[in-house]
Write a structure and sequence with these properties.
The chain has 106 residues and is an all-alpha fold. 59% of the residues lie in helices and 0% in strands. It has one domain: Cytochrome c-like domain (Cytochrome Bc1 Complex, Chain D, domain 2, Orthogonal Bundle), CATH 1.10.760.10. α1 crosses α4 and α3 crosses α4.
Length: 106
């Protein structure tokens, strides 16, 4: 294998691993935030939500068309059935990462 190609592969592998570690870190921080502030109404795990009309985060993650962008738009809009909670940008990104990490999990 040529040195340039090998170097490119190593750089890409390192960048991919760093991005995955960042996603995991954001997801973990989002889980902690959700436990602290969201779990009073929403199920953030496998069980039912404490507040019947509040969807489980797992169900939100599994909805068709749910993306980081759609979650961000939702979290920045007020809703009559939800308290007007203003998340700091980093907290919002962490919660979004956590919700998206639930997609496809049992």
């Amino acid at each position: 294998m040529k040195p340039l190609l090998l170097g490119t592969i190593i750089v890409l592998a390192t960048a991919t691993a760093a991005a995955a570690a960042d996603d995991l870190s954001r997801s973990q921080a989002g889980h902690v935030y959700a436990e602290t502030y969201c779990s009073k109404c929403h199920s953030i795990g496998a069980g039912p939500s404490p507040l019947e009309q509040a969807p489980r985060f797992k169900d939100v993650a599994e909805q068709s068309g749910v993306t980081a962008m759609s979650l961000q738009a939702f979290l920045q809009s007020s809703h009559p059935t939800m308290p007007n909670i203003i998340l700091e940008p980093e907290d919002m990104q962490n919660v979004i990462a956590y919700i998206l990490s639930l997609k496809g999990r049992e």
